[in-house]
Amino acid sequence: MNKNPLHSSYQPQKHGVYMIKIKILFFFISLGFALLLGRLFFLQVLQGNYYQTLALNNSKQVINISSHRGEVYAKDGVEKIVENAPAYSLYLVPNNFPSKLRQTEVWNTMQKNMLERFDIDREQMARVLRRGRLNPYRPYLLKPNISQKELHYLAENLDQYPGLLYLSIPLRVYPGKEKYAHVTGYIRPISAREVKKKKDLGYSVISMVGKLGLEAYYDLELRGREGYKVQIVDAQNQMKDEIFPEDGIPIAGKDIITTIDSRIQNIVYETLEGYPGGIVVSHAKTGEILALHSYPSYDPNIFQKKIDKAVFAEFSENKEKPFFNRVTQGEYPPSSIFKLILAITALDRSAIDIDKFSVYCTGGVQIGPKYFKGTGYHRTQNVYQAIANSCNVYFYHLGLNLGPQLISHYAQNYFNLGKPLGIDIPFEKGGLIPSQKWKIENKGTFWWDGDTANFSIGQGFALVTIMQIHAITAAIANGGTAYKPHLLKSFISPETDEVFEERKQVLFELPFKRSQIEKIRKALSYVVQWGTAYRIHSNKFSIAGKTGTAQISSKVKPTAWFTGFAPYKKTDSDDVIVVTVLLEQGGLGAELAAPFAKAVFDGIFLNKNPRLSIKETLQPWALKRAIYKDWLNRRNEKELPEGYFKPISAIEKKETDG
Amino acid sequence: MNLLAAAQPKKQSEKGKGFLKIFYTLDIPLLLIVVGLGTIGVIFSYSSQIQIFETGAINPYNRYIKQFFYLLSGLILVWGVSLIPYRKLAEHSHIFYIGILAVLTFTLVLGTVVNQSRRWISLGGISLQPSEFAKIVIVVFTANYLDKLKHGMNHVRSLFILCALLAPVFGLIVLQPDLGTAIVFIPVVMIMVATVNIKPLYILTLLSISFLVLGSCFLLAYSENTAFANGVLQGVNYRRVLFFLLIVSLLFSTTLWIFNFRLMNKFLLRLSNVFTVIAFSCVLTYLTYDVLLKNYQKKRLLTFFNPYQDKWDLGYNVIQSQITIGSGKIWGKGLFKGVQSQLGFLPSKSTDFIFSIIAEELGFVGACLVILLIFSLLFRLAQIALRVKDYLGGLMVVGFLALFSIETFVNMGMTLGLVPVTGLPLPFLSSGGSTLWSSLIVVGIVSNIYTRRYIYS
């Protein structure tokens, strides 16, 4: 039966079941094909556009081209404060880097070699690879600024390290290190969060973004416009074609010439070194800032060499706050310097006959339940004497006469206190001028006469910045006009060589007649001639100024202020230079801040070593006192190199009287 | 017996004259479809070689020229095979079977290693993939075995014997390792077994076992990789569940079976059998998952569910293939203009993922036409299976039909993201001599069966 092929049981057609089974089988096959067709329809017709963009993203690669970042010059337009140096950075394209899953042994040895050769942090590597999963075709920064030796090695052995890449990324160099840090700020690679926020301004993932200082304030001008090119790449990341769109050509940033005078900045830097505080020097006539320094400072170069969180933390968690620009951001009680504002207000309002108004100082005043101490037992004081001696009692009376409303009105509206000046350094603070309303809203209690008394001598709630006091002093020095302090002298566009001059801007006019300013100026000169700051009296040139001692709390030493200008006798001269000094926990303003200012003036006019000047001023009396010994020991006593200061400028030749 | 004379069907011998007589054993519609598919395969193996912006730099000994010669020689092979009466083939299937066993063993020992697996043997410049030819042998051998059974597959014993006979080939291919090819045998043989006289309960049992094993493997892979990180079965270890299931079902089946001695209850017997099937599936799952599947294969199962989980390694093929197909849209990017394939984003583009290039360059319309062409091939095979007048031929055609349809479905489903990635080729389209030749040999056998249907009826 088996062998006979014609047997009926072998004829499939006679078995309906066989036919049905094949039909069922074919039905299922058709079902499968319908499924395939349905999926094909879904992918190609319904989702076609989506997958088309995915395919484009596969092969299209936008490469950003960084633009030349503008350099920053000192006032003379020759010395560079910030410059670009040629440098190479190490990058990794994660897509070309062998996958960890596939080649374990090879991968391990290669990675080990690589990490050792280029001294790459293992965590940094892991971070780059983790981030690289999102966009594996873009180069990720592994190590900025590789050494010449590493560069040569990599160039020769590039084939051994697939995925590694070196790109020429100019290094930002700050030759002055700590000296200009608070002027220039620093730059860092932009963070992912910032890119999202600033995309409209043209920032991209490879952008460097200015932090603090001029780098931040003029970031848009300095960076120019970044360019880009489009590359068509294959799966091996081999470039197949390159497109340079017209709007993708990078535009170089503008160079900046600052108003900083490097000689004066040197002096200021040397003067302040070792003591927390701030010094600012400017031209009274224009508002150009010649020098600005805040101690402690930081070296902006460290952010260029290595992206290290530990280094950054070391700075940002430092108790002395090196990033904190005390000149523009520090808010301090104005202390005795506020007395000038009171005096000017009184002069302007003619509320009292200022020439005849005098107070008998008994060393203090009883106001209500509280006894307000003065600075000494001065007996009869007129306005000159009161300013020169910094007599509190005189100003308690004057303040109570004028009333707090008037004082805060004048301070806010005529002296620009309580709001930022608009200097070209970011994050400027505005300080605080209290009023009766302010006290009720913020402290919950009513203003009483004791507050007025405190307010009159600059204690209590009022807070100002060094820059604000500096602007007021400059206005007094030049005869009544306050110019907006600024660091920018001009822009130089490297492509067109155009120079954009920054004009001086009037910030406010002191509210009184020209003749009356002489009274204030005279009072300020008395301060130095025989007043609180008599120790800095100089025979070579005439200084006028005002000391201040801001009590912050009973536990810490007071903050020392001095603001002044020289030469006093040249009213309308272009050469009048204003110096403001603040020393945190510096003790009495007259004892420490004033010698600092003297040292700066000495340096400017006589080209004298500021340390020597301070020592000379302090020598007879202060060095014996423990606190000054203490801070003098804090500085390193290295000798300054020869020719550290430039030759004495024309100012000194003209100005020799005293 | 004069083979040639016996090969002439009565009806057709009257139509032709002279020299053309020797081609009477060919089935023209089948041949036309196959030539069409083969040509498309050659065209797209050329397309897959193009690299963008470097046209004109194509190596003359390139894949598409090889493919063209494979097609030509394969067509001669079709004719040659169609001359051999299929009954002779079936009668000598045990020789072929032993032969293929020997070749597979030889491959395993001395084969060429490509991608960490020994699948190839080199014969004077041509490398052959014996597992491709093993498919034909398996189908012919199984058809012969089933044909010899007197009363169909009504005894479980015959099924086990068949399994035992096929196990060596299966094992040798698994050892290469080429799990994809080996796994295809199971549904093909199951479909062939289902075609003969068999109790529906057996089919049901086989189906339920295979589904249980398949599902459990997926669940195991899923649970071991994510431990059901989200969803209802949070924190469930499926391995333990499986073990519990095995113990419980074993207990139930044995107790029920022992009880049944006395009760002789048919329902209880069935119930006992159900538990036996479950226990058997559990054991099979363990074997498949722990012995057969390698780590990367387990991961592939997972990436099938979520290719974006491992976007740059295992999921890459799947994602890029779907991007390639989807970006073709309705009308395609034009012949030889497929950006995805030419820029190298699509992996193994000339073999496993050739359908993706077709869909990219010809679009939905072209891909539909290609699918239609393959479907018409399968339709013709089904038609032949219905027209054949003896079981042996019918079984062989059904086996080949199942083979082609599974290969096509799995390959296309893989490119479309419907099926996990397996290395199965697309019949007639994927580049490669062995694949094309084995498919064309199948065409030869089928047309031989069709044209001889009256002789053995």
Report on this structure.
The complex is a heterodimer of chains A (658) and B (457). Chain A has 658 residues and is an alpha+beta fold. Chain A folds into three domains: 8-46; 60-258, Penicillin-binding protein 2a (Domain 2); 262-654, 3-Layer(aba) Sandwich (Beta-lactamase). Chain B has 457 residues and is an all-alpha fold. Chain B contains 18 helices and three strands. Chain B has helices at residues 3-7, 10-15, 28-47, 63-83, 86-91, 93-110, 130-148, 156-175, 179-195, 200-226, 238-263, 266-292, 295-305, 316-328, 339-342, 354-387, 391-416, 433-451, and strands spanning 112-114, 117-123, 126-128. In chain B, a hairpin with a 2-residue loop joins strand 1 and strand 2 (117-123). Classes of the chains: A alpha+beta (658), B mainly alpha (457). Chains A and B meet through helix 1 and helix 2 of A and helix 9, helix 14, helix 15, helix 16 and helix 17 of B.
Keywords:
heterodimer, A: 658 residues, alpha+beta, Penicillin-binding protein 2a (Domain 2), Beta-lactamase, 3 domains, six-stranded mixed β-sheet, five-stranded antiparallel β-sheet, 24 helices, 25 strands, elongated, disordered N terminus, disordered C terminus, B: 457 residues, mainly alpha, three-stranded antiparallel β-sheet, 3 strands
Look at the helices and sheets of chain B and give the structural class: mainly alpha
Helix content of chain B: 55-70%
Which chains have the largest interface? Answer: A-B, 53 and 59 residues
Report the biggest beta sheet of chain B as strand number plus sense, adding barrel if it closes: 3 strands, antiparallel
Which range does the strand content of chain A fall in?
Answer: 15-25%
- How many angstroms separate the termini of chain B? 18 Å
Our Rg estimate of chain A from Cα atoms comes to 36 Å
Q: Structural class, from secondary structure content of chain A?
A: alpha+beta
Question: What is the CATH topology descriptor of the largest domain in chain A?
Answer: Beta-lactamase
Query: pLDDT below 50 for ≥5 consecutive residues: which ranges of chain B?
Result: 1-8, 53-57
List the quaternary state of the chains: heterodimer
Q: How big a fraction of the residues of chain B is strand?
A: under 5%
Number of domains of chain A: 3
Task: Compute the average pLDDT of chain B.
Answer: 84
Could you give the distance between the termini of chain A? 141 Å
The side-by-side strand order for the widest beta sheet of chain A comes to 7-3-2-12-20-21
By DSSP (H or I, 4+ residues per run), the number of helices of chain B equals 18
Give the CATH architecture of the largest domain in chain A: 3-Layer(aba) Sandwich
Rough shape of chain A?
Answer: elongated
The CATH class assignment of the largest domain in chain A is: Alpha Beta
